[in-house]
Specification:
Blueprint lengths: L1 E4 L12 E4 L6 E4 L4 H21 L3 E6 L2 E7 L5 H6 L9 H10 L9 E5 L5 H8 L3 E6 L4 H8 L7 E4 L9 E6 L2 E6 L22 H15 L5 E6 L2 E7 L4 H17 L3 H4 L9 H11 L7 H9 L10 H8 L5 E5 L7 H6 L4 E6 L6 H10 L3 E4 L8
Parallel strand pairs: 6-7, 7-8, 13-14, 14-15
Antiparallel strand pairs: 1-2, 3-8, 4-5, 4-6, 9-10, 11-12, 11-13
């Protein structure tokens, strides 16, 4: 092993810090000087992007913040409304760039200053996207020469670029030390495949292939998310991640609230917002976020929002919100463990969730299944718990 000295640990006062790099990993820092959290996020994001590619055969990407994915996706469609909602300035995207745009767009607020990972070689198309976003790092199996040159110019050479061997597999046993105590366990090598979703517990609609792929994306994303966690996904991309909550219903509320925002960003009223010249993407994203919280804003906050716009915002009504969300079919929810109470589905149905995957095994499985039946959802039991700590 070789050791790389890190800028600092979790916080700037935690020095010295370092990382031991396995020789077989093919890991190289091509630009910048990483910190402890950079390494943690990069390794988590890389595993997620790589596993999505293995499971689906499509180019995949992850957008990580604080050891959990803000978004994840496989390459797919970019409808016009989505392009506008993401302030995209180009239509010429490679498959790798497409996957990352979809991953980052799952939660623009949480992806601010993200760690990006892609399953494929970084090309100039993706490098240009990264240079147009507030991002801290990219990890990939390789980079084209012109893409690397461009990324090295980002942040005056401070942008972090990592390369890793896509065929590297770590040892079966992993270990960590906490407060002087050494722990070890078998690494989570459980394979997430379509076969995991065969145990259907309800009489709802059967799962078409695109829904199965979306459940794959959601469930693999959970595998690399701090527990408790619930993921909402649509069309092969994460649109709401509820991570690190002590209560499952709070995970569900958080994931569904984020999913609602993702859907409502594409509402005609939202797309009609006209921003004043000179605003950057993060400032525009903040205005959209505030606009979608209009009913909860003070008059002062509404004034600040309007100050960033050319036109006067026309708020969405409660009925308009509900009607818009219902336009999107095939929305999936996956849980990293069993769903203990039906209140999770009571919240999920408001976000038009139609397909649910959970481990099963709760004392109230019958009650939760009955709720799924009542709401016309298709629910499967995977029999697989995916806690991560």
């Amino acid at each position: 092993m070789t050791e790389i000295e890190l800028k600092y640990g979790c916080n700037p006062h935690q020095v010295p810090a370092g990382v031991k790099v396995p020789e077989r990993s093919g890991f190289h820092v091509l630009s910048g000087r990483p910190s402890y959290i950079n390494i943690l996020d990069a390794l988590g994001a890389w595993q997620l992007a790589r596993e999505l590619k293995i499971a689906t055969g499509k180019p995949a990407a992850a957008s990580f913040k604080h050891t959990s994915p803000a978004g994840a996706a496989v390459a797919g469609s970019l409808p016009d409304a989505y392009r506008v909602s993401q302030f995209l300035t180009t239509d010429d995207l490679s498959p790798a760039a497409n996957a990352y745009v979809r991953a980052r767009g799952g939660d623009r607020m949480c992806s601010f200053g993200d760690v990006a990972a892609v399953s494929d070689v970084v090309d100039l198309s993706l490098a240009r996207v990264l240079c147009d976003e507030v991002s801290d790092l990219i990890i990939a199996p390789g980079l084209e020469a012109d893409a690397l040159e461009l990324l090295k110019s980002k942040r005056q050479g401070g942008y972090l670029v990592f390369q890793i061997d896509p065929d590297f597999e770590p040892p079966e046993i992993e270990a960590r030390e906490v407060f002087g105590f050494g722990l070890h366990q078998k690494r989570n090598t459980a394979a997430i495949t379509r076969a995991l979703f065969e145990r259907v517990m309800t009489t709802g609609a059967p799962m078409p292939p695109d829904v199965l792929e979306t459940l794959l994306v959601a469930t693999i994303a959970l595998k690399y998310t701090q527990s408790n966690s619930v993921c909402v996904a649509f069309d092969g991309q994460v649109i709401g991640m509820g991570a690190g909550q002590q209560s499952r219903v709070h995970c569900t509320r958080l994931a569904c609230d984020k999913a609602d925002k993702w859907l409502l960003q594409q509402h005609p009223k939202t797309l009609r917002l006209q921003f004043k010249d000179g605003l950057q993407k993060p400032e525009k994203a903040n205005i959209v976020d505030q606009f979608l919280l209009w009913d909860y804003l003070s008059e002062i906050e509404k004034g600040k929002l309007s100050a960033g716009l050319v036109n006067e915002p026309i708020p969405l009504t409660t009925q308009e919100r509900a009607d818009w969300v219902k336009r999107f079919g095939g929305i999936c929810l996956s849980s990293d463990a069993f769903i203990p109470f039906a209140d999770n589905l009571d919240r999920a149905v408001k976000s038009n969730v139609r397909f649910v995957a959970q481990a099963g095994g709760s004392l109230r499985d019958d009650e939760v299944t009955a709720a799924a039946e009542q709401y016309g959802m298709t629910m499967v039991h995977t029999g697989l718990r995916l806690f991560l700590h």
